[in-house]
Structure formats: structure tokens, C-alpha cells
Design a protein that fits this description.
The chain has 187 residues and is α+β, with helices and mostly antiparallel strands. The protein contains three helices and ten strands; from the N terminus they run ααββββββββββα. Strand 3 and strand 4 form a beta hairpin.
Length: 187
């Protein structure tokens, strides 16, 4: 019995949590996350500064004509044509948003609630294709409608995804027929 009492007397109680060290680690981690977020924001702003030579986005004309096609979906961003990871952030082109697209003989009207709307004149449209990704968004093959267009002296790719993916093929055909017609008329 005496060995049992001796054994019980020798046991130490559990260590008490060192709250000062724990709070220090949590504050340090929060400061690190804030620093990383701030650096990402500064990088985004710097990219916008580097792309400041991009002209202002055109707005839709008063009389664009009757709609050929309409689409409701998501705008996933714009990149330099052919470089699917080189995101364009100037003038709000890097901001993801909902989108309402309207294709007319005058061009492509891009209405984005919560972001800057823009218009792509028919003469600036180069092609449309189905693709699998654009900066920040990768989908199944053919899941993204990518429209290539000229803005200033740059060619841009803008990625859209319809709420009804079956509509993409009609958009590709309609835009490509418009660009074929405009290049044939220019000859």
C-alpha cells in the first residue's frame, strides 16, 4: 500500500497551456496571412499599372440593332490572345462576374452586373472557339466559350460560360460567320 501512496504522490499534474505562446502564434499567423493578402493585392495593382496602355473599353452604341443571340452566364476574365495564363486586369477585365451577352450586327454587348460593361464592335471580333480554360478557370474540354477580339494594338481572349453549355456551339458559329463576312467584305 505504501508503494501505491508513494507512486500517487510522485505523479505530476498535466502541463497548463501556455496562453501567451498560443496567442503569440495565432497573432503571428494572422499577420502572415494579412501580409500575403496585401502582397497579392499589390501584385494585382502592379499588373493593372503595367497594362495601363490599354485604351478605355468601348461602350454599346445607342442603336445596336436586333439581337442575333443572347446568353446568360459567367464572365471568367480576359487574357492576352494565345496565352491563357496572362490575365488582363486593366479596366476591370480581370474581374469575374455574372454576364449577359447580346450579339448583334454591330458587335458583342457584354453587360456585367457589379463590374464594368463593355462592347466589342463587330470589326474587332476575330474568332470564337470552345476551350477548356482561361486564367483562373479550367473546365472540361469545350466547356468555355472564348472570344478573341482586338482592343487597341492587342488581341485579347475573353472567356464566358453559359448557364446552358449547349448554347456555346451556336455562339461559335455565329461569331465566326460574322468575322468571315467582315474579312471577305474588306477585300
Amino acid at each position: 500500500m505504501s508503494t501505491l501512496i508513494t507512486f500517487a504522490a510522485e505523479q505530476k499534474s498535466a502541463e497548463v497551456t501556455d496562453w501567451a505562446a498560443r496567442i503569440g502564434w495565432v497573432v503571428g499567423l494572422l499577420l502572415f496571412v494579412a501580409l500575403v493578402y496585401w502582397l497579392m493585392r499589390q501584385g494585382w495593382k502592379w499588373r493593372g499599372t503595367l497594362q495601363s496602355d490599354l485604351p478605355q473599353l468601348p461602350t454599346a452604341p445607342e442603336t445596336a440593332g436586333p439581337a442575333k443571340l443572347e446568353l446568360s452566364g459567367r464572365y471568367h476574365g480576359s487574357t492576352t490572345a494565345g496565352q491563357w495564363l496572362d490575365r488582363i486586369v486593366a479596366h476591370g477585365l480581370g474581374t469575374r462576374s455574372r454576364v449577359e451577352l447580346t450579339l448583334t450586327d454591330a458587335g458583342l454587348d457584354v453587360v456585367r452586373p457589379g463590374a464594368q460593361d463593355f462592347f466589342i464592335p463587330a470589326a474587332s471580333l476575330r474568332e470564337a472557339r470552345l476551350d477548356k480554360g482561361i486564367a483562373g478557370k479550367v473546365l472540361a474540354e469545350g466547356g468555355l466559350l472564348v472570344v478573341t477580339w482586338a482592343h487597341g494594338d492587342k488581341l485579347l481572349d475573353s472567356g464566358f460560360r453559359s448557364d446552358h453549355a449547349a448554347e456555346h456551339a451556336a455562339w461559335v458559329e455565329a461569331i465566326n460567320s460574322m468575322t468571315t463576312t467582315s474579312t471577305e467584305g474588306a477585300r
